[in-house]
C-alpha cells in the first residue's frame, strides 16, 4: 500500500510540474509589449501563421529565451543535486560554493580579451572557459574540504571564494574601456536576455548529453547516498564516481554561467523542493523532477524579472534570490533542529 501511495504521489507531482511548465511557457510567450491570445501563439508556433511583427517577436526573441530558461534552469538544478550528493550537504550548490563565480571570472576575462581586439567568440569557447573557471573554483573548495571537516566552514569558504572571484570580475569589467565590455556588467549579474537559436542549439546539445550520463548514474548515486562503504560493497568505484560527479556538475553549471551569468539559489532550493514534493531521495525520480522543477522555477523568476518593472529588466539572480533564499533558511533551521 505504501508503494502504491508513493507511486501515486510521484505521478501527481510530475503532472503538476508538467502543467506548471506548460502554463508558464504560454504565459512567457504572451508576456511583453505585444500580447497574443493562446490561439495566435499556437498558430505562430505550429502553423507558422500570423502577422510578420508578432511572428518575428515570438520566433526570434521570446522562444529562444524561453527554451534557454528551461534548459539552463533544469541544468542548474541538477548540478546542485549532484553537489549536494557529493558533499552530503543540502545547502551545497554552484553559487554558494563559488563555482559559478569562478566560471564567471574566466568567461569575463576571455570576453574582455577578445572584445578588446574586436574578435567575437563562439558559444563553445565560452562553455570551455566557464568549465575551466568552475574546475579552478572547485579545486579550491576540495582543498578546503580536505582541511576542514565541518560542512559549515566548507560552505563559508565557498562563499568567500565566490566573493573573491566576483570582486575581481567587477573590478575588471568596471575599468574596461570598450562600450561592449562595459555591457558585460548586466551579464555578470545574471540575465537570459539576448538568447539566439544558435545558443539554444549549443546548450541543448551539452545539457542533453550530460543529463543522459547523469541519468545512467542513478543507481551508483542511490548507493552512494547510503554511505561510501555501502557503495563500495555494491561495486562502485568511489574515486572515479566522485570525479565524475564533480565533472558533470561543473559542466552543467559552466553551461549556465557561460550563457546567462551566475544565477543564485536555484541549485540549492529546487532539489530540496523536489525531494519534499516526491517524499523520496531516489535519484531515478529526483533527477527528472529537479530538471522540471528548475525549469519551472526559472521560468517563473524570469517572467517576474521581465515584467514587474517593464521596460526595465531585473537581473535574474536578484529574483531567484528572493524566492530561493527563504528555502535555504528553512533548510538550515530544520537541519539545526535535528542536531
UniProtKB/TrEMBL annotation:
Q: Which InterPro entries match?
A: ABC_BtuC-like, ABC_transptr_permease_BtuC
The way this protein sits in the membrane is described as:
Multi-pass membrane protein
Q: Which residues cross the membrane?
A: 7-27, 63-83, 95-115, 121-145, 152-176, 196-216, 243-265, 285-305, 314-333
Q: Which family does it belong to?
A: Belongs to the binding-protein-dependent transport system permease family. FecCD subfamily.
According to its UniProt record, where is this protein mainly located? membrane
Q: Which GO terms describe its molecular function?
A: transmembrane transporter activity
Xref: SUPFAM superfamilies: ABC transporter involved in vitamin B12 uptake, BtuC
Task: Indicate what this protein is called per its UniProt record.
Answer: Hemin transport system permease protein HmuU
Q: Which CDD domains match?
A: TM_ABC_iron-siderophores_like
Q: What subcellular locations does the record give?
A: Cell membrane
Q: Name one GO biological process term.
A: siderophore-iron import into cell
Q: Which UniProt keywords apply?
A: Cell membrane, Membrane, Transmembrane, Transmembrane helix, Transport
Classify the source by domain of life: Bacteria
Question: Which cellular component, as a GO term, is one annotated location?
Answer: plasma membrane
Question: Entry's Pfam families?
Answer: FecCD
